[in-house]
Amino acid sequence: FIEALASRNREGMYGTASCQYYLYRLTLAYTFGHDELAAEMYDKCIESELEKKMFARPTLCACAFYGGLAALSMERKDRNNPKWRGIVDAVIPRMEKWAEASAWNF
Question: Residue 33 in contact with residue 7, Cβ under 8 Å?
Answer without folding.
Answer: no
